[in-house]
Write a structure and sequence with these properties.
With about 220 residues, the chain is mainly α. Helix content is about 65%, strand content about 5%. Strands 1-2 form a two-stranded antiparallel sheet.
């Protein structure tokens, strides 16, 4: 059970959105700025990442209301960097796990749809969808680092999931990182059956921790 003074976690990913934009630029996923078209593609790519952020946070808010708690907003910091978190009052471990997991569940559902419906996405001219998928992967990777190192504000999602499921936070980090790695492999062309099904299995395994959380 979460401590009485622990505010439920829904850590905002605004800062991760900024990092995603930088990472996309450095990796070459963002087209070189040489024309109006490339500028438009870059804007669409970042717009896709922004849509990913909206989906992640909306899932938390929906889970808050579904579990009978009202979401709030709290200013938090990560080192010297200020940003915000969506919070909620303390709830039972099962509800805490669901609320804290909701953003990742939404990400996984969207990524799975994209990679299944558009297996050749990398070769398509689809900057919005690529930005959305990149946000999902980079956000999961960023959260997994925070989970392994146990760093960042108390309102981080992985800490809320760990408290709800009563497991060590690095376990949550591994369950978040594995789909990100496998989905990246699928995007870059690894379409063998075991890669696809391993990606789906890790997403399901993370969600099934809810069974432990509600005991």
């Amino acid at each position: 059970m979460a401590p009485a003074d622990h505010k439920g976690c829904n850590l905002s990913t605004v800062q991760l959105l900024r990092l995603a934009a930088v990472a996309l630029t450095c990796s070459g996923a963002v087209p070189a700025i040489a024309s109006a078209q490339s500028l438009m593609d870059t804007a669409k790519l970042i717009g896709g990442a922004a849509a990913g952020l909206a989906i992640h946070e909306s899932a938390h808010v929906a889970a808050d209301f579904a579990n009978g708690v009202a979401p709030g907003v709290k200013k938090v910091t990560f080192g010297p960097i200020p940003f915000f978190a969506i919070t909620h009052d303390p709830v039972s471990p099962g509800r805490e796990f669901v609320i804290s997991s909701a953003g990742f569940w939404a990400q996984h559902a969207v990524s799975e749809y994209l990679l299944t419906a558009r297996p050749q996405l990398r070769d398509e001219h689809a900057p919005v969808l690529k930005g959305l998928l990149a946000f999902n992967v980079l956000t999961s990777a960023g959260y997994s680092v925070a989970a392994f190192a146990r760093i960042g504000p108390d309102e981080r999602d992985t800490r809320g999931m760990a408290l709800g499921a009563r497991v060590d936070e690095p376990v949550i980090g591994a369950l978040i990182l594995a789909p990100a790695i496998l989905d990246s492999a699928r995007y870059f062309g690894a379409r063998r059956g075991w890669v696809v099904w391993a990606s789906r299995a890790t997403k399901i395994a993370g969600a099934l921790l809810v069974v432990r959380a509600v005991r």
